[in-house]
Amino acid sequence: MEEHVCPIWVGYLLASPIRKFAQNPEKILGKYVKSGMKVIDIGCAMGFFSLPLARIVGINGSVICIDLQEKMINSLGKKAKKAKLADIIELRKCASNSLQINDLTGQIDFALAFAVVHEVKNKEKLFMEIHRSLKKDGKILIAEPKFHISKENFDESIKIAQNSGFKIIEHPTIKRSHVLLLQKN
Question: How far apart are CA 51 and CA 89, in angstroms?
Fold first, then answer.
């Protein structure tokens, strides 16, 4: 599902613990994700959000981590094992034109798309696949970096999401990011 692929070296930067000072995953996601939930992390990279999500959902939940790049997924897999979260995290490699989640229809409580929508060429298909995977009233948090994506481009993506069956329900604040929480109609 790519238009531009994040270089591996950027994945290491994004996974840095220093990033937590500006974007703390537990604070960002703790309001929306609860124990026992089934979550997808789209464009998970090396797991900056995936590992905290796994801690939040706990042993009765699951986090499906999706990325296009094998090296990103492999790095996350090693981190998950080291953190003793491998039983909660499921690693999936998507295709350049699909998330490969048809088997998850109506099963997902929450989806995270952090700094990834701008990399996808076919946003309509992306949002339709996410919409199909979500349970009734399921939610998606979309965040894009302000330094890389204009407000106009972010708004265009949100309009596509709305046309795919999502409604805006909240305008959260995350440092250096355009952010919206949407819900499946």
Answer: 8
| Cα end-to-end span (Å), the chain | 24
**For the chain, domain boundaries:** 24-184
For residues 171 and 180, the answer to whether their CB atoms sit within 8 Å is: yes
Picking from 110, 145, 129, the residue whose alpha carbon sits closest to that of residue 4 is: 145
Alpha helix segments (H runs only) across 4-133? 8-14, 25-29, 50-57, 70-82, 123-133
- Fill in the DSSP letter of residue 95: B
Both structure tokens of 63: 């986090």
Mean pLDDT by 10 residues, the chain (185 residues): 58 62 88 98 95 98 97 96 98 96 98 96 98 98 96 98 99 96 97
Strand order in the sheet with 177-184: 89-93, 62-67, 38-42, 108-114, 134-145, 177-184, 166-170
Rg (CA), the chain: 15
Fold of 24-184: Rossmann fold (3.40.50)
pTM confidence score: 0.91
